[in-house]
Design goal:
The complex is a heterodimer of chains A (about 190) and B (about 280). By secondary structure, chain A is an alpha/beta fold. Chain A has a single domain, classed as 3-Layer(aba) Sandwich (Rossmann fold), CATH 3.40.50.180. Helix content of chain A is about 30%, strand content about 20%. Chain A is built from six helices and nine strands. In chain A, strands 3-4-2-1-7-8-9 form a seven-stranded parallel beta sheet, sandwiched between helices. In chain A, strand 7, helix 4 and strand 8 form a beta-alpha-beta unit. In chain A, helix 3 packs parallel to helix 4 and helix 4 packs parallel to helix 5. Chain B has a seven-stranded mixed beta sheet. In chain B, strands 3-5-4 form a three-stranded antiparallel beta sheet. In chain B, helix 1 packs parallel to helix 3. Chain B is globular. The chains are: A alpha/beta (about 190), B alpha/beta (about 280). At the A-B interface, strand 5, strand 6 and helix 3 of A face helix 2 of B. Chain A: One of its GO terms (molecular function) is phosphorelay response regulator activity. Chain A: Keywords: Chemotaxis, Hydrolase. Chain A: Pfam families: CheB_methylest (PF01339).
Chain lengths: ~190, ~280
Amino acid sequence: MSTRPIEAIVIGASAGALDALTQVLTPLPADYPLPLLAVVHLPADKKSILAELLDMKCRLSVKEGEDKEPLAAGVVYVAPPDYHMLVEKDGTLSLSSEEPVLYSRPSIDVLFESAADAFGPGLVGVILTGANEDGAHGLATIREAGGRCIVQRPHNAYASTMPLAALQTCNDARTMSLPEIAEFLKEAGGLP
Amino acid sequence: MSDNTDDIELRLLLDAIFRKYHYDFRGYSMASIKRRLLHAREKFGCGTFSLLQDKVLHDPTVMPELLTYLTVQVSELFRDPAYFRGIRQHVAPFLKTYPSIKVWVAGCSGGEELYSLAILFREEGLESRTMFYATDINPKALRRAEAGVYELDRLAAFTENHQLSGGKSSLSDYYTAAYGGAVFDKTLRKRVVFSDHSLVSDTVFAEVQLISCRNVLIYFDRELQDRAIGLFADSLSRQGFLGLGAKENLRFSRHADRFIEFSKEDRIYQKRGAS
């Protein structure tokens, strides 16, 4: 495993995402030293209140990622509905309205692949509950780039398809329960 | 962070494309352009960007096809109906007071945004005094825009969007179904000039009252965004309007103070009177 310090966390979730993300993010402190980026599958035509909801529940600040926004520690960037969110190598975000991937825009794969390219071994990828296969390819890309891969234990997940698909492309990923993932993220940030 | 080999080759490829064909993608957002070029690389059966560069430099048939990967061409008629409702309710009443109107659809791609505006202008009684400029860098996209033919399976979404945008007629009034596609009424493009224009390298070509440029700036880096927005400001008449994509804004732009937020929610800006 890489010794390069962790620089960012990316998280993908779909069906059952709100509850799962809440459990993973609420234990993290407001001064968490890394940026976190999340893709949740949302209907394209609705104004999403996901970021606001999570922001109320979490000590971290949670917002929708904006085009060309520089990443900051302790902030959770959620991809806006109907746009892909990508990370540039200079640590800023880019949005894109390219075709949906696996019927999804935003797509977990798109975020994960760009983040793997930007952060290499300095990245942690987390796949949570979900009912399709988005994220499986992206997680494999993170592993190839030397990053760390975490998958929610499928039998604990609200929908197990996404974690199972991720484990198929990334069979050495660590499986954890939601509280264990929160603990792991704390340690990844160098917190006690 | 040092570039890996892929990135070095990617930059050389973009440089080669610029030198040989004068298409300048060097100031585009790299994350998404890399993703699209990785697809292209696979499609052309090249293991590296250097091999793709070799192909694009020596086989003249490759560049036109590569251009479809380099430029994003995803849209719908009346995409984000709230934006078109905003144009209809807040901008059209202003334009109605002008004797003649010029509209620039910048980065028109396959023409979806252009036809949306042409239909809206007809419904609002503005059509007869309006001239549209539809520009793009991709000749293939311009030809598609000029043809105005869309797949039948996209029409349900188009029709719903049109209604949500406050459409005053039935979308089916504007097209006929033929040969498995929907052909849009050619009178809609009677007052349209289709033209090749690059926001990266070209300059002002007309004074216009409305610029609609949706989901184009997100593919540019900050510097290039600034150039394009400056070009828009220079092209607009006093109190002219600029409409952007739902997730685009002028907040970080060098030219932000040349505009006021006219309809913040709909991303419609108005050029300040005195400048």
